[in-house]
Each structure stands twice: as structure tokens, then as C-alpha cells.
Design a protein that fits this description.
Strand content: under 5%
Structural class: mainly alpha
Protein name: (rape) hypothetical protein
Number of helices: 1
Keywords: Coiled coil
Radius of gyration: 45 Å
Largest sheet: none
Oligomer: single chain
Organism: Brassica napus (Rape)
Helix content: over 70%
Shape: rod-shaped
Number of strands: 0
């Protein structure tokens, strides 16, 4: 009888400890999960602080780039216009030169 009581007592203790073990395992799992989250959160803070310092530079770089691209477009248009005008000027000079040649060669 004593043996049976001891076995029942052991079974009851084991059953009572099972939820505690489960709770302990759950706590350990959650603790490691929170540690992982904290590591991720710290990493994100570190990255955001580093990139936050870079964004003004990037914005400044983007504004400089847009200014330079606008300047390059304007300069390209001016060069194209100048090339057209030089072509017209060259054609006009050639016409005048041919007229002068004709006038020199013609008998007066």
C-alpha cells in the first residue's frame, strides 16, 4: 500500500511539474525571442542613425545632380543652337565667297 501511495504521489508530482516545465520552456523561448527582438531593434536604431546622417548628404547630392543635369541640358541646347548658327554663317560666307569669285572672274 505504501508503495502505491508513493507511486501516486510521484505521478502527481510529475503531473504538477509538467505545467511548470512547460511554463519554464515557454519563458525561455520568449526570453530568447525578446533578446532577438532587442538585437534587431538595436541594429535598426544603429542603421537608422547612420543613414539619417547620410540622408542630408544624399538630398544635397540629389539637388546638385538635378542642378547639374539641368545645366547640362541647357548647355547642350545652346551648343546645338550655336552649331546651327555656325552652319548658317558658313553657308552665307561660302555664298559671298562664290559671288566675289564670280565678280573677279567676269570681264569688266
Amino acid at each position: 500500500m505504501f508503495y502505491l501511495i508513493c507511486m501516486i504521489s510521484n505521478v502527481l508530482e510529475y503531473e504538477d511539474q509538467t505545467p511548470i516545465r512547460n511554463l519554464d520552456n515557454t519563458f525561455v523561448d520568449h526570453t530568447s525571442d525578446y533578446k532577438t527582438r532587442l538585437v534587431y531593434k538595436d541594429a535598426l536604431k544603429s542603421i537608422s542613425s547612420k543613414t539619417g546622417a547620410l540622408f542630408p548628404r544624399m538630398n544635397q547630392f540629389e539637388s546638385q545632380t538635378s542642378f547639374l543635369s539641368g545645366f547640362m541640358i541647357q548647355l547642350s541646347e545652346q551648343i546645338s543652337s550655336l552649331n546651327e548658327r555656325m552652319e548658317e554663317f558658313t553657308n552665307r560666307i561660302e555664298e559671298l565667297n562664290s559671288k566675289l569669285s564670280c565678280n573677279r572672274n567676269s570681264p569688266s
